Amino acid sequence: MTKAMADDFDLILEQGISFGKAGGTKPHGNDKVKTKAKKKKYITGAHGSGSAMQKAKYREQRANRRKKR
Predict the structure, then answer these.
(1) What residue ranges do the domains of the chain occupy?
(2) 63, 51 in Cβ contact below 8 A?
(3) The whole model's pTM is what?
(4) Section 49-69 average pLDDT
(5) Distance of CA 46 to the CA centre of its chain
(6) Are 47 and 41 in contact (CB under 8 A)?
(7) How far apart are CA 35 and CA 52, in angstroms?
């Protein structure tokens, strides 16, 4: 083992290894909606997907059911 490798090995033994996330700055003010389920067109079924339209229908029924109480 070379001296450089021995020094690195000793440093790892003394300080340990950190497996955390890499540091970095994230841009502030990034208000993008990242999931389809939260987008307005998807919620209302306006983008034409049959699944989304059915889910929108069920959401509307559930909202109306709460108003009746």
Answers:
(1) 36-69
(2) no
(3) 0.37
(4) 81
(5) 24
(6) yes
(7) 14
